[in-house]
Amino acid sequence: MLVHEMVQLGAKRSGIRELFEYGLKRKAEVGAENVFDFSIGNPSVPAPDAVQAEFRSQAAREDTVKVHGYTSATGAMSVREAVAKNLNARFDAKARPENLFFTCGAAPALMSTMKAMCVPGAEFIILAPYFPEYPTFIRAIGGKVVIVPANTTDFDLHIEDVEPYVTEHTQAIIINSPNNPSGVVYQKAALEALAELLRKKSAETGHPIYIIADEPYRELVYDGYEAPFIPNIYENTVVCYSWSKSLSLPGERIGYVYVPDQAADSTDLFNAVAGSARALGHICAPTTAQYVVERCCCVMPDIKAYDENRKTLYKGLTELGYTCVYPHGAFYMLLKAPFGTALEFSEKAKEYNLLIPPCEPFGCPGYLRLSTCVSHDMILKSLPAFKALLEENR
Amino acid sequence: MLVHEMVQLGAKRSGIRELFEYGLKRKAEVGAENVFDFSIGNPSVPAPDAVQAEFRSQAAREDTVKVHGYTSATGAMSVREAVAKNLNARFDAKARPENLFFTCGAAPALMSTMKAMCVPGAEFIILAPYFPEYPTFIRAIGGKVVIVPANTTDFDLHIEDVEPYVTEHTQAIIINSPNNPSGVVYQKAALEALAELLRKKSAETGHPIYIIADEPYRELVYDGYEAPFIPNIYENTVVCYSWSKSLSLPGERIGYVYVPDQAADSTDLFNAVAGSARALGHICAPTTAQYVVERCCCVMPDIKAYDENRKTLYKGLTELGYTCVYPHGAFYMLLKAPFGTALEFSEKAKEYNLLIPPCEPFGCPGYLRLSTCVSHDMILKSLPAFKALLEENR
C-alpha cells in the first residue's frame, strides 16, 4: 500500500551517482590519486572569501532569534531588496523586491514555476542535451515532457529545431544557458529568434508561452562571453536562479524565482508560484543563507580555475585524438565516444580508473559529460590514462 | 492558463499571518510596547549557546567546499550516525543511520511521508485541534483529509473518538504531541490504546495503518511530563522531526523522517519517502545546519522562559475569569472565547491591542490560541488589557 512510482524513484540511483559511489570504492582500493573522477558537478572552488566572511559574520550576530528565525515565505524583505537592486544594476532589470520568491535552491524554484503553469495537458519543452532531472521534475508536477533532440552540429539553439515541438498545449520552454552538460552559451541572436517564435505561437494559441530561464551557471562564462539576461529579450520570461555554482554553496539550498512585472499575468503567476511552493512543502529559504546573499549577491565567482581546467582538458584530449565540444560556460565539457556506445566507452574507461558518465540521461546518446570542477592536477594526471584508453581500444 | 488553485493558495494569507501583519501596523501607530501580540509561534528563546557556538565553528571551518557542498539526498552519513546514536541513547530506539532521511524541516518531512503512502483513495486522519497546514499538505499530495472533532472535555486522545473514522482507506493518522495549539501531551496509556486499535484495524483491512508522529515540540514539556517515543509503542510509526522549536532554528530548515526497521515494508517505505522528497524538489537538507545538528542533537532546550510564561499567563487569565486549557507541552495555550464566537472575540480583542488568533483554522471553533513564546514582560503588561476586554464586553 505504498506508491510504487515513489518507491522506484527513491530506490533508483542516477548513473552519475552510481559512478560517483563506484569511485569512492575504487579510491579505497587503489588510492585516491589514481582515480580520475569526472562525474560530479560539485564546485571544486571554495566559496569566495567575502562569502565565507559573511557566514562568519552571520554566525556572530547577536540577534540570533532573527538570524535563525522564520522569514516570510517569499524571503526576508531586506534580502529581496538587495537582490532586486543587484539585478537592476547589472541588467537594468526593473525588478522590484515583490518580484522575487526565495526558494531552497533551483530545483524547487523550477518545480514551483512549472507547477504554477501545469494546467491539464500542459507541455513543457526541454532542449537536449538537458539536465537529467528535468523530465523527473516535469512528470512529478503532472506535466508532459517534450524533448527537442540535440543538434550535434554545434549544440546551440536553432529555432527551426524548436518550432515543430511548440503546440497549443505548450506552457513553457526551459532554457538552460550556460548549458549543463554542453557548456554552450546561447547568444542574443538565437534568443531573439526564439522570442519571435514564441510571440508568434502565443498569438496563435491565444495564451502566453513562457521561457523558464534556469541559469545557475549565469556567471560561469569564459572567453569574454556573456549569458544574456533573457527577460530583456523576451517579456514572458521567468528566471530560476541559485547561488549553488556561482558562490559555491550547493549544500546551502538558496535560490529564487524572479517573475518580472512585464510577464503576462505577472501577479497571478507570482501568487501561483508561491502557492505551488507551499504545495511542495516550502516554508522559507534557509535564513542564514538568505542574509549571506543579501550582502554577497554582488560578489562574482573566481572562475580562473574552471577556465584553466577547461582549456587544459580540451587541449589534452583533442591532442590525443578525442573529439570534444569546446565549452564557453558552466564547468562541463562534452566528449564524443570514440568507440562503441557512450555507455560502453564509460564502462571501458572505468578499467582505466576514468569515471565519465554517459550522456544518455541528458538526452544526448553518443556523448559523455566531463566535469571540469575538479583539481587541475587530476586533469594532468588523467591524460596518460585517456591516452592508453584510446590506443588500446580503438 | 495558470493553475487556479495554486494562485488561490499563494494569494490567500492565513488568519494568523493577517493578525501578525496587523500587529506590525498597529505597533507603528501606538508603539510596540502597547501591542500584545500572541499570534506567532516563532521561538522567542535564542538558540542554545552550544548551538550558536557550533554555527560559528562551522563558519570557521577550512574545508569550505565540504561545509557548503552537496550531501547525499538522505543527509551526510556522519550526521545520520550522530542522530541515530542520540535516538538510541535517549529512547533505546535501535535506529540505524540508514533509517534517517534529512529534510528541509518538518513540512517536507510530513509531505514526503504522506506522499509515499498516498495510493488512490488514501485517507489521512488528523485530530482536532490540529496544525492548520495539515489539510493543505494532505490535499497537496492528493490525499483525503479525515478530521476527528476536538474532544473539548480535555483535548486529549480518546480512542472511542478516533475509531469511527478509521476505514479501509486509512493509510495513516497524524499524531502531534505535544500538540499545537492545545499544548496537550498524549500519555502512554492513550497511545497504547491507539496502537491496539490500529493493529486491529490493520488486520481487518489487510494493510498497515501508520502513525505519523509529527513532534517538533518533543522536548518542550513541563511539570515533569514526557512525550513518549511513539515507535516504542506502535511498530508502524514514522517520526517527522524538526529542530525548529527545540533548538530555536525555524529559519534554518532542518529536520528528518525516521522510518524504523520494525515498520511494515520499512525499506520500501524509506525509498518511497526519498522518492517523494525528490518529487517535491528535495536535493538535500542545508549542509551547515546538518553539521550543526550532528554536534548539537544532544543539546536540550532551555524551557524555563516558556514554562514561566505559561504559568503566568494561565494564572493571570484564570484569575480574571477566563477559561484556559492548562498546557503541559509546546508553547501555546487554548483560551475559550468568553463571549461571541472566537472570531468575534478576536476582533474585539484587537480594540484592546490584544492579538489572539481564533482556532477555527485549527478545527476548534470557540477557542483561540495564545502563543507563549513571547516576552514575560509583555504577558504581565497585557493582563490589564485582558481585564478591560472582559469587563467592558461580557
Main attributes of the structure:
homodimer, 394 residues, alpha/beta, three-stranded antiparallel beta sheet, 14 helices, 12 strands, globular
Describe this structure in words.
The structure is a homodimer of 394-residue chains. Helix content of chain A is 41%, strand content 13%. The first copy, chain A, is an alpha/beta fold. Chain A is globular and about 60 Å long. The first copy, chain A, has a 7-stranded mixed beta sheet, with helices on both faces. A 3-stranded antiparallel beta sheet of chain A has the order 9-10-12. Chains A and B meet through helix 1, helix 3, helix 4, helix 6 and helix 7 of A and helix 1, helix 3, helix 4, helix 6 and helix 7 of B.
Concise summary:
Two copies of one chain form a homodimer. Chain A has 394 residues and is an alpha/beta fold.
Layout of helices and strands, plus pairs?
2 copies of one chain form a homodimer.
Chain A (H helix, E strand, L loop, with lengths): L3 H8 L3 H16 L5 E2 L11 H12 L3 H4 L9 H15 L8 E4 L2 H12 L5 E5 L5 H8 L3 E5 L10 H4 L7 E6 L12 H18 L4 E5 L22 E6 L12 E4 L7 H14 L7 H10 L7 H17 L3 E2 L6 E5 L5 H9 L3 E2 L11 E5 L4 H16 L3
Helix pairs in contact in A: 3-11, 5-11, 6-10, 12-14
